[in-house]
Amino acid sequence: MRYVGGRTLGIGLNSGRPFAFYLLCSRSFPNRRAVVEGNAVYILNQTETDNPYVSYPVVRLTKDYAVVTNGFIRTS
Description:
It is built from no helices and 6 strands. By secondary structure, it is mostly beta strands. The radius of gyration is 14 Å and the shape is globular.
């Protein structure tokens, strides 16, 4: 069996309330966590690396909606 890591984005309703999630699976960089900063959620690597692609924003919140994505430009 071959391991295939990746990311999963999901949205739905729970008791009539909307929700969104982001799931990250990685053997190369397994020590990451999600951090809320202001109106955004970021995936941050917990170990030192020169790879700029292992820490990135995944959720941007506004008053009326949330944008859930596989990373976008950090503007804060």
